[in-house]
Amino acid sequence: MDMIKQVFLGFIKIHILYHSSKEPIYGAEIARELARHGYHISFGTLYPTLHSLEEDSLLTSYQKIVNGKKRKYYKITKEGKKTLKEIRGKIRELVDEVIYEK
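and the corresponding structure tokens:
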């Protein structure tokens, strides 16, 4: 995987953690949110990403019946919140250095 794809996948994971910290999310919803930010990600990439975040204990999931169909929701865990907080600090540091050249 080239570096740009790796960085964008990292950005996508950060978006997922952020939005799941605000409210539970589900696949189609987060795909639309990511597209709003210019990330057009296939479900074949999105769901393995969600599953890997869950395997890393950063997300947890539950199922709910919506309009007669099962929908899987994801929400951030305590470990996910801790990770997101740490990432925010690193993002600030990176932006200050790379964008604002402090």
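(Above: one complete record from the training split.) Residues 12 and 84 are 13 Å apart (CA to CA).
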